[in-house]
Amino acid sequence: MTALRQRMLEDMCLRGLSPATQRSYLGAITALARHFNTPPDQLTDGQLRQYFLYLRMEKQAARSTSTVVLCAIKFLFEQTLRRPIPFFDLVRAPKQRILPVILSLDEVRQILACLRTSHHHACLC
């Protein structure tokens, strides 16, 4: 285990992060370092920006995955390395808006027609 990894692990323990969060953060930082074949504390702002473009454009990572990676990098830089990350606002993926499913009047009538008792019918009306 590298000294940086050990220090980040200790920092996460001190901050009270759960073991699952610690594993996620360490996995995200490991993947980042492997992507550039560079220790994470030596990565430039440009490389970090490129990594988020890679996650979004090539890997088509979900917003939640990008958020975990972003939080892991933010923790590493701000808590362990004591370095600010200036591009923080640029990498957050837009939140998806999902419209609720609304049944048409005919679809509601079909569902109600399938009910056998009026008791069930009354519960849904």
UniProtKB/TrEMBL annotation:
InterPro entries: CB, DNA_brk_join_enz, Integrase_recombinase_N, Integrase_SAM-like_N. GO terms for molecular function: DNA binding. Residues 1-81 form the Core-binding (CB) domain. Keywords: DNA-binding, Plasmid. It holds the Pfam family Phage_int_SAM_4. One of its GO terms (biological process) is DNA integration. This is Integrase domain protein SAM domain protein. It comes from Herpetosiphon aurantiacus (strain ATCC 23779 / DSM 785 / 114-95).
